[in-house]
Fold this protein.
Amino acid sequence: MPRDIRRIAILTGGGDCPGLNAVIRAVAKDAMFHGMEVLGIEDGFLGLIEDRVRPLRVEDVSGILTVGGTILGSSNKANPQKFAVGRNPDGSVIWKDVTDVCVKHLQERGVDVLIAIGGDGTMACAEPMIRMGVPCVGVPKTIDNDLWGTELTFGFQTAVQIASDAIDRVQTTAASHHRAMVVEVMGRNAGWIGLYAGLASASDVILLPEQPFDLEKVCEVVRRRGSRGSRFTVICCAEGAYPRDGERVVERVDPTSPDPIRLGGISRWLSAEIEKRTGIESRYVVLGHVQRGGSPVSQDRVLATLFGDHAMELLKEGRLNRLVAWQNGRLTDVDMRESAGRQRLVTPDNPVVEAARSVGTSFGD
Ligand code: F6P
């Protein structure tokens, strides 16, 4: 182990997801066993900007493997490069680059390495700090599973389980009432949750952000299924899905966030269109943050622990500014800076897309 690593700090950035505590536990326990001091930064980069940092003890990180959320808190608004510090008289937001403040706070606290657990936004926030001389190790998290450089992020498998359990329940009521049911799952730009939950729940239609859908093709499936068997249709629809001649449905805009768009509402629109065009009764469900909450499934507990362990291996070997990754069925790592702000999307030739198509699933195309 490099002798000069005495104190590390951990932060969790971006939207939370099941398994964050499992990583914190794995990193902190290993570091403590090796005599390092561990600091926890509260609420992601917001806490670093505001210098809200606390020492973690072994009691703080015990008993948290199965606990959802993050004991450190998180923020998906605070980007040090573009931080909202007030409003102009005309109401527009005043932005400031406060990266130097973050670096100063880390240096004042004698932090040797920052462990940043987050998605593409968190890695993009860490990148300028690396350039300013802060050694980092990145751990990929997001239920969306869309971080470039890794084929799997922890939290994803839990979200898929929650979504497919919910769709299973929707299916029985859809069958009883011979309805079309649209279930909206998370996934802004990447449809991984929709694809996996849709396949796992035998949804009849899967709609993804990567492939604009043809509304008439979706209605054709509903009409066809409405005239045979149990006469119901289940549509698994990512929040970022949109019709060929339309746009994504925005639920809210937060001007103080550097990434201000929050999507939501496509299922409501689609369900109304289906009912109007086919005459078949339709309902919609938005699963929302239920997919991000609660205890991680066992695969995510294991993956998160493996990721935390690999992060510590990198740190102990002095291989810094690396992002832990999962590729070809094994742990590895990539350059953190390459992954910053980049997303991994579903492609039409993905084997899961092909398998879904071969069992008759429509992608609305
Ligand atoms: O990136 C994770 C994610 O859950 C997306 O799937 C979703 O669009 C977004 O975060 C929701 O963000 P918020 O928690 O700010 O509503």
Q: What stands out?
A: The first helix runs from residue 20 to 33. The chain is about 35% helix and 20% strand.
